[in-house]
Amino acid sequence: MFFCKCIFNNRKNDFREISKGYRLLKDSNQLDFLDNLKIQLTNTTLNSKINSCESIKIDSQEVSLEVSVRQFILQRFIGVNFNKEILLCVANKKRKFSYPVPSEWQRIISNYGIKVNKGVCSFLWIIEIIRLWFYACYEVVRQSINSLKLFLKSDTKNNESFIYFDSLAESNIPVRTGTYEYGILSWYLKNFGSLGIDYLTHSVSTRNEIVLNDKIKVKSVSSPILPPLTCTSLALFLGHCFSKVISSIFLLILGKWWNVLLLRDSFISKIINLNKGRGIAVQYLFHNSNWIYRPLWTYTAEKYNSEIYFYFYSTNIERFKKADKVNRIVNSWNLMSWSNFLVWDQFQFDFVTKNSNYPIKVDVVGPISFVYSETKELEIPANSIAVFDVQPVRSTYYNSLGSDQDYYVPEVANAFLADVFETVTFLNIPIAFKRKRNIGKLAHYKYVNKINRISKEYDFLNIDPSIPAELIISKAKAVISMPFTSTALVGKHLGKPSIFYDPSGLVLMDDPAAHGIRVINNIVDLKDWLNKI
Questions:
Q1: Would you call 389 helix, strand, or coil by DSSP?
Q2: Measured between alpha carbons, how far is residue 332 from residues 173, 292, 355 in Å?
Q3: What is the pLDDT confidence band of residue 8, given thresholds at 50, 70 and 90?
Q4: Closest by CA position to 307, among listed 525, 161, 455
């Protein structure tokens, strides 16, 4: 009990220190500190020996192995926990940065005025590398077991074609066979058809096999590729993996950690090569939750004519434009190396092409539906205005996100709700309101209290967050969105009058992140717009 109490108290102290660090940056007008640091890390090349790595190769003429390694580290390690450690160091100048990063990046962090405990950082880095080594070993065992299971199935068809959707969740996959209007799988079928494919596949193990829209089977798979398909290929795979696993230990001892970092993905690449391209998807689709690292094995799959697509399920991916600063490339978008992009509009097309340093193909496909729903019909009052906000999270979590501007905070969100509800209700127009998603206790208490007060003061339709925004907008007269949630673009696409309402005045009218949609920042203009629609 005493031990648990100590841990709880330490966590509370850390939360306070993280908030203190954030406030210090804010008070000194340095909220872009974390962005600047991450931009430097993104653009700093790691050890030049990586490209001559003994254990791992990349099947690409344009993208180097070093870039792939950098992508992996950025995606796996330079996130919220990294932000927290930096903010703790900002709050306490005596504290030394202790977090798993390679030595090249330790020097950069030190150059930003952060004291670095190089010994601890290097130790933690090696611990993470060892964890990845075990993960690679586990992948060998898993693929070998899958291969043996395949041999035991006399009726197995290894030539069935499939498409694989990466990193989906239960909210993306229907529970039962049926016809569904919304969701990424239905969107895909509507826009691309079944292409003579036998299956759409994903990794959500809790979903059973179904038939979607009377067109195609959908099922969960344990791996994006089939395992070794013959006894010979399995034997060669095991021999290859054994030699690489052993040699990587000695290379790690010599300080060549990069021989382990992508070892798991290199084993998947080896399977693809041993199967000579059999057992891979016709297409692989990755979305913008994991945008930085392109898996190493996808280059090998592409070599065997598999198509690798990256798609956006939203458009709120850019920092706000600031009048006194030049727009910068943040969030490591300039390091992405996907071959094919599916984007919503010309603005997103321009964003992708501007930030890419490799040959790419970009298709403008309109809004991409992501979440499915069992709800097929929705009754909302005639001539309703669909209202969409962005829920502010608790300060302890928000501060750790490292935002360069205080926008998605209770003060702005509550002002948005107050202005919109007061103005729309004054004009006797019905409101259909939908929060972005259910975030439970993560929602800021001031926002929760505001929602509770509005529910008592106004008569409106409060729609469950699980209902697709497209369904609501299709029934509404017009759309009001908080910047820069994607619902505004859905409204525009469906031919509905659509605006962003910004109660703070922080959003610039010509911000490219608005995608050409009008930004209104005062009640007078909001009322005038409502009267004209």
A1: coil
A2: 29, 7, 9
A3: very low
A4: 161
